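Checked the freezer inventory, then went back to the computational side. Two predictions to log before the end of the day. The first one is the construct we discussed on Monday; recording sequence and tokens without edits.
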Amino acid sequence: MFYKILKNFFLKKNVTKRLQNQQPILEQQKIETIGLLVDETYFSKTASLVEAILSQGFRKEQITILVYKDKIKSKEVISEPFLSLKNISLSGEINKAEVVDFLEKPFDLLINYYDVNKYGILLLSIKSKANFKVGFDTVDKRVNHFIIKELVDNYKEFTSELFKYLKILNKI
């Protein structure tokens, strides 16, 4: 327990430092690739969320998913690449190759599908090389370029609002 508190303290310090140095990236390009960062601790309908995105005209090959969970049970099976607090060091380094690949991929759109400020998942959002980041209003405002005020359980309303505004911004 003490280690978890200590790790969260150092992650908070790391995230705060990165947020102060973060510059907005606003490129005017169409969205071809989508990264989806989901906190499955509170939202377990990732497949339904992906279907809602696919219904907007995207293909499955264009979407890459990364799942974050606070605790992963020993016999739990997760089909998508996943990460937990256990895989992040005190200095914010990540020791899973599939997660590092996700962070290095230059997505046109990163959907941060979580509404709680957890420093492990915030660090992933900040480290991502995505051009345009979208998330919820309850998360630190400096993480995302575009914020939608909605509840996490209302994934259909979230996706319809998101794609309505992406059309207005001429991103799709």
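The second is the one RB wanted added to the comparison set:
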Amino acid sequence: MNFGQAFEAVKAGKGMRLPQWSKDVVVRVQKPDKHSKMTEPYLYVESRFGRIPWKETDIELFREDWQVVGD
């Protein structure tokens, strides 16, 4: 699926990944609550090493093989 389709799933609470990434690497959304320092949702990458903000590349955005992963 393309980035837009995968992104819609992420906004609904799922994760997304590209098939060449390690199995534990997933892009997810963080939606701030009243206790958050951030005021708007943002994407982050989750892996066995922790969580970091995700900065996409043009190559990733144009890929057609995004996968949606469960909760």
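For RB: The beta strands are 15-17, 26-30, 42-47, 50-53, 67-69. The CA atoms of residues 25 and 32 lie 22 Å apart. Let me know if you want it refolded.
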